[in-house]
Amino acid sequence: MKQALAQQERSAAAERSRIRASLTPYLKNWELYVLISPVIAFYIIFEYVPMYGVQIAFKNFVATKGIWGSPWVGFRHFERFFDSYYFWRLIVNTVGISLYQLAVGFPVPIILALMINEIRQTRLWFKKVVQTVTYAPHFLSTVVLVGMIVMFLSPQSGIVNKLIVWLGGQPVSFMTEPGWFKTIYVSSGVWQQMGWSSIIYLAALSGIDPQLHDAAKVDGASRLQRIWHVNLPGIMPTVVILLILNMGSLMGVGFEKVFLLQNDLNLESSEVISTYVYKSGIIQSQYSFSAAIGLFNSVINFILLVAVNFSAKRLNQASLW
Amino acid sequence: MDRSRGDRIFDAINTLLLVLITFVVLYPLLFVLSASISDPSAVVKGDLWLLPKGVNFSGYAKVFGNNEILTGYANTIMYTLVGTAINLVMTVCAAYPLSRKDFRGRHVITAMIVFTMFFSGGLIPTYLLVKKLGMLNSIWALVVPNAVAVYNIVIMRTFFQTSIPYEIQEAASIDGCGNFRILLRVVLPLSMPIVAVMILFYAVGHWNAFFNALIYLSDRSKYPLQLFLREILIQGQMQAMIDMADDSLAKKLMEVEVIKYAVVVIANLPVLLLYPFLQKYFVKGVMIGALKG
Questions:
Q1: Do B234 and A47 touch (CB under 8 A)?
Q2: Helix, strand, or coil here: B137?
Q3: pLDDT for B52-93, tens place per residue?
Q4: Rounded Cα distance, A145 and A191, in Å
Q5: Measured between alpha carbons, how far is B39 from B52 in angstroms, rounded to an integer?
């Protein structure tokens, strides 16, 4: 009896010390857990609670009843959105702007980086000037950028129309003509971001082994051949990863610039999912309907990202995860 | 070193194209600057191509005489200072533990944080949350929901991992430093370049932010600069400013144009002044994040 008790006590003591041993790595770094706890709290409250709140897309949200208490309505809001007159217009505009932007805006920074990379070592000041200038517009706010677009494209006093008239053409009302919207959106984006986006490729280029270039030179490769056969393959992994990230947001045309460039006359080609969510949700307070559209959008984005990542992995061994 | 003929042609074309690109990027910026200090009638008539004509600061006088713009400026400065301070503390709090190999659970926490980059609750649930927390129409709605950015945590974590030898931290720990002290006395002083980058990224973000203010603020006296800019630049609402002058309509309309250019310059001045000093840091910062993120 006594023996059994002692045995029990021993095993309890062993158990305690085992627990203590397994806790040691945590206890030793307790300060780190204290440090990170506000961050974890932040992500739970401001990212995961809204994910929980997404269920209002399947409910008829009534503010007084709260998210939990509001009645379920299944897919009714989704059906209403799919059947609505706006549905195809929103999809076409959102995907259209994204693809246009991808087709033009994605390759330009790569080309710019390749060009900057070819500036000779003896002319570093020129490299610096090009970089300083092309990075600068990145820091303009969207409001200012759109303000500048409006001023430059104004039919009466804008410099672009002055130029068109000077060349003997007719002034174009760029901002109110739906046909121009996507081009304005994409080209101003290229203007603002090409330098900034090229930084990543320049970093990748600086990591290419110079011996590869020397070997290519010995083999008689010209400059263009070296760019094509050494530099481009060298930055390919970076290119693929950025392409995946871009594809993942194919349906996520940023709200700000589209919203600011919009006016009643160009809505036909400028209304995208995010602006529609804002208008029906925040302005008209149709919370559930709007949340349903937002959810539809996020889910498609997420599926696209996973799909593109999967195929990139198969093709190229470069992937996000 | 000898350069072949092909090489020289290549260099010439490359340089020419780069000069052209640089000019295209620079031109609108210079034009805005010139227009803002030119005679309004010259701007409207289109006599202006690049250099200012009939130097005139009436646009600036009008902007600085406008109380709402000044309020917006003050609000933006406050939001930027408070917001950036919160951002910086939160980013360090996340990045430092995650950079430590002996921090148990870092993979789970990283996964939880990174997942939010790819999927989120979306606008409406977030709006309802902010509303429920009672943050509507207060500074908190602008600084708390964006307290920290995943991408910046990754950049900073990578910097801690790659640029600060773990041996230094181990040595400090053997000397009796706790984790807090290691962070404050050893790691942070060695991380000033990345801290500068973070300050620039976050501060520019707050300075330029307009969306959260648009949806969360209803009180005009709390509006940041960008919301007033939107009214002036895009919606063309500037009654308050042009009514102050009792000149002819034509002159007013001309002034409107110059006010717009002046407002653009004023809004971007702080960022443009900071930019040259921080440039060498931010390129490094982006590269760290890009290469090893």
A1: no
A2: coil
A3: 887 888 888 888 888 888 999 999 999 999 999 999 999 999
A4: 10
A5: 8
Q: Terminal CA-to-CA distance of chain A, rounded, Å?
A: 58
* Interchain proximity B210–A141, CB inside 8 Å: yes
In this structure, what are the phi and psi dihedrals at residue A59, rounded to the nearest 5 degrees? -125, 170
Sequence-separated (6 or more) residues with CB below 8 Å from residue A85: none
Q: Do B145 and A46 touch (CB under 8 A)?
A: yes
Burial group, residue A314, by CB count within 10 angstroms (0-12, 13-18, 19+): exposed
CA–CA gap between residue A122 and residue B163 (Å, rounded)? 29
How many residues are there in chain B? 293
Query: What are the tens digits of pLDDT across the range A216-236?
Result: 989 988 888 999 999 999 999
**Phi, psi (deg, nearest 5) at residue A72:** -75, 145
Whole-angstrom distance, CA of residue B90 vs CA of residue A39: 6
Residue B293 predicted with pLDDT over 50: no
Residue that has been written with the tokens 């062993």 in this structure: A14
Question: Greatest CA separation found in chain A?
Answer: 111
**A3 burial via Cβ count (<10 Å: 0-12, 13-18, 19+):** exposed
Inter-chain Cβ pairs, chain A and chain B, closer than 8 A: 245
Q: What is the largest CA-CA distance in chain B?
A: 78
Q: What interface predicted TM-score (ipTM) does this complex get?
A: 0.88
Rounded CA separation B103/A71 (Å): 44
Q: Chain B within 8 Å of A266 (Cβ-Cβ)? A: no
Indicate the residue of B11, B121, B179 with minimum beta-carbon distance to A29.
B179
Nearest residue in chain A measured CA to CA from B100: A32
Q: Which two tokens stand for residue A171?
A: 């002034």
A238 touches B: beta carbon within 8 Å: yes
Give B-chain residues touching A45 at CB under 8 angstroms.
129
Cβ contact, residue pair A132, B276, below 8 Å: yes
> With bands split at pLDDT 50, 70 and 90, how would you rate the model's confidence at B243?
low
CA-to-CA distance for B258 and B36, rounded, in angstroms?
6
Per-residue CA distances from A142 to A105, A168, A260 (Å): 17, 32, 8
Cα B72 to Cα A58, B60, B210, distances in angstroms? 40, 16, 12
Distance between CA atoms of residues A180 and A144, nearest Å: 20
Give burial (CB, 10 Å; 0-12/13-18/19+) of B267.
buried
A49 contact residues in B (CB cutoff 8 A): 121, 125, 129
Q: Helices A107-117 and A87-105 sit at what angle, rounded to 10 degrees?
A: 10
Q: Is the CB of A163 inside 8 Å of chain B's CB atoms? A: no
Neighbours of B201 (CB within 10 A): 21
Is pTM beyond 0.80 here? yes
User: What is the rounded distance in angstroms from the CA atom of residue B126 to the CA atom of residue A277?
Assistant: 13
A72: which strand partners? A59
Long-range contacts from A7-15, C-beta under 8 angstroms, 24+ separation: none
What is the Cα–Cα distance from A74 to A296, expressed in whole angstroms? 14
Chain B nearest-CA residue for A278: B123
**B100, B103, B116: residue with CB nearest A43:** B116
Q: Count Cβ atoms below 10 Å from residue B240 Cβ, excluding itself.
A: 16
Distance, CA of A202 to CA of B160 (rounded, Å): 22
User: Is A223:B7 a contact under the CB 8 Å cutoff?
Assistant: yes
